[in-house]
Amino acid sequence: MRFTCPNQMSDAPNNGPFYQSSFENIVDEKRRVQIPANWRKGQNETEFMLVLWPSGPQKDACLMVLPPQAAQKLRDRITSMPFGDGQAEALRRFLGRKSHMVTSDKAGRITLPEHMATAVGIDKKAVLVGMFDRFQMWSPEKFTAITEGDDALAQEAFRLI
User: Fold this and answer.
1) How many domains does the chain have?
2) Beta bridge partners of 32
3) Are 1 and 59 in contact (CB under 8 A)?
4) Do the domain assignments include residue 5?
5) pLDDT, tens only, 47-106
6) Distance between CA 93 and CA 96 in Å, rounded?
7) Residue 147 is part of a domain; what is its CATH number?
8) Do residues 135 and 39 touch, judged by C-beta distance below 8 A?
9) Residue 134 parent element (H or E)
10) pTM (2 decimals)?
């Protein structure tokens, strides 16, 4: 089963958070990761939805991190899908069991649930990659591998814009 981010989630308002660039941050012994300061402007103790996100053949490649607006758009889309549709039911179950809500602390850190950090291979460091209206967290090793694939697809991908 392949899942992609819905296009409708990319309509982040101008005053909402804007995530760009990438950062490699330390994961402390309590599995806390610092969200970059320029990604948190004026936002204290924000609730994020973490989703174990597949990429190609990797079932749990990274953590997709959805801020409130993107998480609400995803919830709206999921809950509007018809009951009784096998694919919709599978997607609801998938996202239901592979997602978790976390709240950043006053220092701008989020604590990764142990099962999620283990699933994506995040241990002592995490790479945070801005995706404009959301961001991803990768293990440094998996991020290096996915970047090579992204570079190979970039020319074709730019045709989308």
Assistant:
1) 1
2) 111
3) no
4) no
5) 999 999 998 788 889 999 999 999 999 999 999 999 999 999 999 999 999 999 999 999
6) 5
7) 3.40.1550.20
8) yes
9) none
10) 0.87
